[in-house]
Design a protein that fits this description.
Helices cover 11% and strands 30% of the residues. A five-stranded mixed β-sheet has the order 14-17-18-1-19. A four-stranded antiparallel β-sheet has the order 9-10-13-11. A three-stranded mixed β-sheet has the order 2-8-12, with no helix packed on it. A hairpin with a 2-residue loop joins β9 and β10. Bound molecules: zinc ion.
Length: 258
């Protein structure tokens, strides 16, 4: 088993840029009721995003946080799969975002790493270069559309890249051990007991070897990194993030809890 760190955003008095998805298109949340086998829970998940921009009129627009009955959700999922040419078994989670990521920069933007949402983060060119120079693995790169305020128009164009975390850590080893409940047959949600776990460890037999990764389910919204990542990208050298050793304690509370 390997020691790991959770990577978190650190403001430290500096000014982050604001970010947004270029459309409000996406999946609504789900009220899992009205169909046989429904779990009865209303939920949404903000840990995933599809980068493709769907053709106009093919997806619905939902208010942030809007939740719909299971039947409506499943119809919308089918429509979205067809519109985006996704495989029939592609899992479209409630609350999934669709679209390109935009970042709005002003002259007071100073951080090299930004945290637009739970599914990944944005890095400035110098940080991306360091990550690539060290051959770190577990992510895909995605272009970010940079928008500048009037105060920035005469300045050099900043370059940002989104890091989408794809590395997989499998199921975390925890104390007490995780209890893995069966998933709801309609919405796919797994019940979780939201307790504080001690000593989160990576089970190397389930890990795909990535330097940056997520665990299944319970810590799905958190991003973890290996010692190799921490040694290659010291927090003293870049602004915008810090590492927390998770060998001692990690709270599982999440804002958009599944
Ligand atoms: Zn359900």
């Amino acid at each position: 088993m390997t020691t790991i760190y959770r990577i978190t955003w650190a403001f430290r008095g500096k000014m982050p840029a604001s970010t947004y998805i270029d459309s409000d298109l996406g999946m609504p949340g789900i009220k899992c009721e009205g169909l046989p086998g429904c779990c009865g829970v209303t939920w949404s998940d903000a840990t995933a995003r599809i980068m493709t921009v769907p053709p106009p009129g093919t997806c619905n627009k939902y208010e942030f946080g809007a939740c719909v009955p299971a039947e409506v959700f499943l119809k919308q999922a089918e429509k979205t799969r067809r519109a985006l040419n996704l495989p029939g078994d592609y899992e479209l989670l409630p609350g999934l975002n669709i679209g390109r990521l935009h970042i709005k920069c002003s002259k007071v933007t100073t951080l090299v790493m930004e945290w637009p949402a739970l599914y990944g983060f944005i890095v400035r060119e110098d940080l991306l270069n360091a990550i690539e120079k060290h051959g770190l693995t577990g992510f895909e790169k995605s272009e970010v559309v940079v928008k500048r305020t009037a105060s920035m128009l005469l300045k050099p164009f900043p370059k940002f890249t989104e890091i989408l975390v794809t590395g997989k850590g499998g199921w975390a080893r925890t104390d007490p051990p995780l209890v893995i409940e069966p998933a709801c047959p309609v919405c796919g949600r797994r019940p979780t007991d939201n307790k504080d776990y001690q000593n989160i460890e990576l089970d190397e037999s389930q890990w795909d070897g990535s330097d940056i990764f997520r665990f299944e389910h319970t810590f799905g919204g958190y991003i973890f990194v290996t010692q190799r990542w921490v040694d290659s990208i010291p927090e003293s050298k870049f602004d915008g993030f810090e590492y927390e050793s998770v060998g001692t304690m990690l709270a599982t509370r999440r804002k958009f809890l599944r």
